[in-house]
């Protein structure tokens, strides 16, 4: 750009009038005329610099392969984290049942695993976790608790 054009547009600027806010002195849209010998009509020249040598065309997009790798890392991290949480939860429950007194009881008519779990007090675990322990340690299946069968209960308080 020639000095005359630069000087003409140098007056377009911003002033601060004693505050940090910028306020334009004129319109912000300025058309700067180009030279008639520089039109870019042939878009096939788009990757070449002024000397005609090829420039490296850089894309700021993330490649599909990179997205797939990032997604795979996230999925593996979530799965590994869930296994870690599950293992920690199982360890917490296992530690809570260590050293508890085990009682052998004959199941009464109309009783349920839940009713027995409510009578068992184990510090640090919920009634649901006690019911799960009773089912797992007595091989109680989908048919439920059969009356007259002998079951083991943790910290049973009758």
Concise account of the structure shown:
The protein contains four helices and four strands.
Describe what you observe in this structure:
The structure is a single chain. The protein has 158 residues and is mostly helical. It contains 4 helices and 4 strands; from the N terminus they run αββαβααβ. A two-stranded antiparallel ribbon has the order 1-2. A two-stranded antiparallel sheet has the order 3-4. α3 crosses α4. The longest helix is centred in the middle third of the chain and has 34 residues. It is rod-shaped, with a radius of gyration of 39 Å. The mean pLDDT is 76.
Outline type: rod-shaped
Order of helices and strands: HEEHEHHE
- Overall mean pLDDT stands at 76
Number of helices: 4
SSE class: mainly alpha
Largest sheet: 2 strands, antiparallel
Distance between the termini: 97 Å
Structural Rg: 39 Å
Query: Hey, roughly how much beta strand do the residues contain?
Result: 5-15%
Biggest sheet, spatial arrangement of strands: 1-2
Total DSSP E strands: 4
Low-confidence sequence ranges: none
- The helix fraction, in percent, is 25-40%
Task: Reconstruct the topology from this structure.
Layout: H1 3-10, E1 14-15, E2 23-24, H2 64-97, E3 102-106, H3 113-119, H4 127-137, E4 150-154
Antiparallel strand pairs: 1-2, 3-4
Helix pairs in contact: 3-4
Key features of this structure:
4 strands, mainly alpha, rod-shaped, two-stranded antiparallel sheet, 9% strand, 158 residues, two-stranded antiparallel ribbon
């Amino acid at each position: 750009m020639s000095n005359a054009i630069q000087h003409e547009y140098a007056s377009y600027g911003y002033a601060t009038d004693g505050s940090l806010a910028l306020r334009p002195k004129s319109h912000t849209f300025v058309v700067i005329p180009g030279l008639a010998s520089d039109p870019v009509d042939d878009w096939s020249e788009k990757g070449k610099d002024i000397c005609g040598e090829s420039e490296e065309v850089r894309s700021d997009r993330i490649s599909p392969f990179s997205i797939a790798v990032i997604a795979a890392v996230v999925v593996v991290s979530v799965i590994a984290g869930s296994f870690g949480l599950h293992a920690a939860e199982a360890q917490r429950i296992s530690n809570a049942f260590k050293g508890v007194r085990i009682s052998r009881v004959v199941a009464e008519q109309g009783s349920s695993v839940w009713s027995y779990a409510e009578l068992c007090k184990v510090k640090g675990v919920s009634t649901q976790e006690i019911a799960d322990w009773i089912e797992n340690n007595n091989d109680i299946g989908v048919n439920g608790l059969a009356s007259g069968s002998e079951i083991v209960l943790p910290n049973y308080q009758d």
